[in-house]
Automatic annotation (TrEMBL), chain A:
Domain Sulphur oxidation protein SoxZ: from-to ranges: 129-215
Domain called Ig-like SoxY: residue spans: 6-110
Name of this chain's protein: Sulfur-oxidizing protein SoxY
Coiled coil: none
Lineage: Bacteria, Pseudomonadati, Pseudomonadota, Alphaproteobacteria, Hyphomicrobiales
Pfam family, one: SoxZ
UniProtKB/TrEMBL annotation, chain B:
Annotated PANTHER family: FAD-DEPENDENT PYRIDINE NUCLEOTIDE-DISULPHIDE OXIDOREDUCTASE, PTHR43755
Protein name (Swiss-Prot/TrEMBL): Sulfide dehydrogenase (Flavocytochrome c), flavoprotein subunit
FAD/NAD(P)-binding domain location: 34-150
Domain Sulfide dehydrogenase [flavocytochrome c] flavoprotein chain central residue range list: 165-281
Taxonomic lineage: Bacteria, Pseudomonadati, Pseudomonadota, Alphaproteobacteria, Hyphomicrobiales
Keywords of the record: FAD, Flavoprotein, Signal
Length: 221, 430
């Protein structure tokens, strides 16, 4: 795997919060945290998430550009079938941690599945910032996160249309960045944490594969 | 005039009272084995009856906390004022009098799987060869901040039929016209996937007749729900814009409840205030399953689908809502079908017969109005040790159908209820 670049991952410290069984593979809640005592100069630089049995296994990558990061996330992902979800965490020391957790996907009777989104409010965003140590940032953008793999009722391919990136800045400093791919559920949902070292303005920018963007700003202490 | 129904009723009573029919069970030395069952609901009462039907020489003891069983199915009709509470209550008389099941009206508190004993609240212990648990669900009181047992006395869940259901009905009756009813619906898996949506439908029917300016808000922890298209079309047709549904992605997930003030807070910080608040919290298998050591970390019971014996403790069988039987839904219909499979497996194990290979059907009817029914059906079997849904079988009601079609499905729903309660408890139609 390119990310590993010849390194041996250590099966330690990656904590996954996933249901054992999901009755709706279109929206599987996923929580990730990294539980490992970090050395002074060792912090989590990136977290990569994979669903090996999906047509496009790479679900997302999350990057923490500076040492004042809290590697803890919540999101919602698509799983095509029962499989393990695999998470790699790259540390600034060069070490790579790995963790995985198996999910059984079934569609329960009495349930009719649809991967829904609100067509009228595409690009509408919701954000909840809860100050603390660390500050929690909960985000959602209304968007189909269309894979380009589905067909409509007439059998035509529904064109790919994805939110590919979410960037968080305080002032001019990039504090968090997410690369989102096809296996992120419709209406991309993400909770992440920041530790601002001084009061400033938190700016969020979501970017679609067309280049179109959505933005949000709020002052944080 | 004597109605036909009354005649049937008294004929059944005479039948039950005939000593020739009930005697043999009492007189028999019950030596073919001893089965203890916890829960006299859809799964447990079915298993008790079908074990006795297949082999009356097996001693069957049923431990059930309530003297009478009230069904969740059709409790939504009661909430909508379309039935009285009595009509959804069922007695255990047929099980004891006709089938010779021993009934103990008490809570079961503990299980020792090695010693093969069940402990009752009184401290008494019962020995068993085979134990069957069908305890249904318990609420996860830590699932939503602020929603505990005390809060449920102010903002009922009414997800077990009984005092909670009566409390919710009395609150709806006391509500002024123009009030707001809020229902908070949980994420999957939970008991009866279409249940919350049938509930709001029948409450809307009650409002339409008695409190027409009232509104209903569903705050959902899901982005899609059972028979969604049919429900939403039916709501529009029958109730206009009385019912509003807020999906997970539109900030429908309730994360905190203030029962005192009938307020809920959603994930992104919206506060909604209700006049009547119905919170259906996340759920898990009934506590006796955990006490028996048969639940997994998710709080539900993994079973061997051929027999419904626990994967974790031998000689303990579990059926109904407590189990992981997906794709079969957590329905009364499924619990009844599973109770029969487990009964066959237990009889076979005790007598050395071969158990037949199981297959199941499930139909969930829902009423959107008293004369407007919809359904979803599925057929299931076991393949490679897992329950699968048989391809090309089952399906949902058509999206385009006339009033007569919907009315017929509403009648089938009543027919289903009468048939299944007769099958399980020997009840006669109300
Ligand atoms: C509003 C609503 C509507 C529904 N409508 C339908 C419908 O239309 N069709 C359908 O198929 N399903 C419906 N259901 C689902 C159905 O009610 C359940 O799936 C079914 O009851 C499950 O059966 P069970 O045997 O697992 O549990 P239950 O039927 O709940 O039985 C469990 C019994 O065990 C007893 N018990 C539990 N623990 C102990 C203990 N430790 N000691 C002694 N006794 C104990 C309880 O008192 C209870 O009587 C509905 C549910 C709801 C909430």
């Amino acid at each position: 795997m390119a990310i590993l670049d010849g390194r041996d991952p250590i099966a330690q410290g990656v904590v996954l919060d996933l249901p054992l069984i999901s009755e709706n593979g279109a929206v599987v809640p996923l929580g990730i945290s990294i539980d490992r005592p970090m050395a002074e100069d060792e912090y989590v630089q990136a977290i990569h998430v994979f669903a090996p049995a999906n047509p496009f296994p790479h679900i997302a990558s999350f990057r923490y550009p500076n040492a004042r990061s809290t590697p803890r996330l919540e999101t919602r992902v698509r799983l095509n079938e029962s499989q393990p979800v695999v998470v790699l965490a790259e540390l600034s020391s060069g070490a790579v941690l790995v963790g995985e957790s198996e999910v059984r996907v079934t569609v329960s009777g009495c349930l009719t599945m649809s991967d829904t989104y609100d067509t009228e409010s595409v690009f509408q965003t919701r954000v909840r910032v809860e100050p603390g140590a660390p500050t929690s940032v909960l985000t959602l953008i209304n968007h189909p996160q269309e894979t380009g793999l589905r067909t409509n009722a007439q059998g035509e391919i529904i064109p790919k249309r994805l939110i590919e990136k979410l960037e968080a800045r305080i002032g001019d400093e990039l504090v968090f960045e997410a690369d989102l791919h096809r296996s992120i559920s419709a209406n991309p949902y993400l909770r992440f944490y920041i530790q601002p070292d001084a009061p400033g303005t938190l700016d969020l920018v979501w970017t679609e594969d067309t280049g179109e963007t959505a933005e949000f700003s709020q002052d944080v202490a | 005039m004597i109605s036909r129904r009354k005649v049937i009723k008294s004929a059944a009573a005479a039948f039950a009272a005939t000593p020739l029919l009930s005697m043999p069970f009492v007189a028999r030395a019950q030596t073919a084995g001893r089965v203890v069952i916890v829960g006299g609901g859809f799964g447990g009462a079915t298993a008790a009856k079908y074990i006795k039907r297949r082999n009356p020489d097996i001693a069957v003891t049923l431990v059930e906390a309530s003297p009478r069983f009230y069904t969740c199915p059709f409790s939504n009709l009661y909430l909508g004022g379309l039935r009285d509470f009595d009509s959804i209550g069922h007695s255990f008389d047929e099980l004891t009098d006709t089938y010779g099941v021993e009934l103990i009206t008490e809570w079961a508190e503990g299980v020792d799987g090695d010693a093969h004993t069940l402990t009752l609240a009184s401290g008494e212990t019962l020995g068993y060869d085979k134990l069957l648990l069908s305890p249904g669900i318990d609420m996860r009181w830590d699932g939503i901040e602020g929603y505990d047992e005390a809060a449920a006395e102010l903002a009922p869940h009414a997800w077990k039929a009984g005092p909670q259901t009566e409390l919710l009905r009395s609150q709806l009756e006391a509500m002024d016209d123009g009030g707001l009813f809020i229902l908070s619906a949980p994420a999957d898996p939970f008991r009866c996937p279409p249940g919350p949506y049938e509930r709001v439908s029948l409450i809307a029917n009650y409002f339409k007749e008695s409190k027409p300016s009232s509104k209903i808000l569903i705050l959902d922890s899901k982005d899609a729900f059972s028979k969604q298209g049919l429900f939403q079309a039916g709501w529009q047709e029958l109730y206009g814009d009385m019912i509003e549904w807020v999906s997970l992605s539109n900030d429908g997930r309730v994360i905190r409840v203030d029962a005192e003030n009938l307020e809920v807070e959603t994930e992104f910080g919206e506060i909604h205030r209700a006049d009547v608040l119905n919170v259906i919290p996340p759920q898990k298998a009934g506590f006796i399953a955990e006490a028996a050591g048969v639940t997994n970390e998710g709080g539900w019971v993994p079973i061997n689908p051929e027999t419904f014996e626990s994967q974790q403790v031998s000689d303990i069988y579990v059926v109904g809502d407590a189990t992981i039987a997906a794709p079969m839904p957590k329905s009364g219909f499924s619990a009844n079908a599973q109770g029969k499979v487990a009964a066959s497996a237990i009889v076979a194990a005790l007598t050395g017969e071969e158990a037949p290979a199981p297959s199941w059907a499930n139909t969930c009817y829902s009423l959107i109005g008293p004369e407007y029914g919809i359904s979803v059906a599925g057929v299931y079997r076991v393949e490679n040790g897992e329950i699968i849904s048989v391809e090309g079988s089952g399906g949902v009601s058509p999206a385009e159908a006339d009033a007569e079609f919907r009315a017929a499905e509403a009648r089938y729903a009543v027919g289903w209820y009468d048939a299944i309660t007769q099958d399980i408890w020997g009840s006669q139609p109300a």
